[in-house]
Amino acid sequence: MRWRWLFLLPLFFVFSYLALSSSSPLMVVQVDQSLGSGYIGIFRGNSIGQTFISTSDGLAGVSLFVGPYTETNATSIIFHLRAQTGQELRTVFMNTSLIINNQYNNFGFSEIPDSAGKQFYFTVELANSTNPTNRVYFGYYQGEAYPDGSAFQNGVPMQGDLTFRAYSMTTPKSILYSLCARASRDPFFFGIYLFTLGSLSVMLIKVWTSQKKAHLEPNVRKLCNNPEELSCMLTIPLWFPALGSR
Fold this sequence. Notes:
By secondary structure, the protein is α+β, with helices and mostly antiparallel strands. The chain has 2 domains: 26-170, Sandwich (Jelly Rolls), CATH 2.60.120; 187-244. It contains 4 helices and 13 strands. The protein has helices spanning 8-20, 172-185, 187-224, 229-235, and strands at residues 26-33, 38-42, 47-53, 59-71, 76-83, 88-95, 103-112, 119-127, 135-141, 151-153, 156-158, 161-162, 164-170. The strands form 2 sheets. Strands 1, 2, 4, 7, 9, 12 and 13 form a 7-stranded antiparallel sheet that branches. The protein has a 6-stranded antiparallel sheet with strand order 6-5-8-3-10-11, with no helix packed on it. α2 crosses α3. The longest helix has 38 residues, at 187-224. It is elongated, with a radius of gyration of 28 Å. The termini are close together.
């Protein structure tokens, strides 16, 4: 019997530990307002914006959904991120040649470490736009899709929300710590998590076992052609350890 795959388990746990203890940064979605019922444009002398609350530390980017109709020869779009007090925190310039229609376009910036639970306000406007026909359209939802913020036009609140996502910079280690912290505060969540993980594990094991059994069945049938039927049935259990040897 060759249970060679068992020797891979220690390597799996070692690599899992190294991955979780890594400090390599990851971009994680923390706010996702993906609903949209139309588009709202920015043009010369016009800006749009949105307030939102950061749900975690490390706020490092905001993506806006750009619509299908973009007509501009302006050099760039200016993205401003401000605190609730109005203080300018980050400014990002995106060249209009880099805009991709019908998908999210990300405005990334250096992370804000202590952003959890704080309200922010971002605006976008065209830079160096002298042609009144220059326009960039962004996704917009007229209803109240996002309860923790609201859309703005030229600094004035308006009904509805922009279609946007906010990202945080984190690490696998931080994700593990957050999971453990939540599990300690919420046993029900931890139970659901373990149940889901266990169910997926059982499903994968059953799929793997069924494939091995299907590969083994011809050999079992060949053995059962022996005239001594009873002896054949008694020897079948001896074949199951061979499931891991193929």
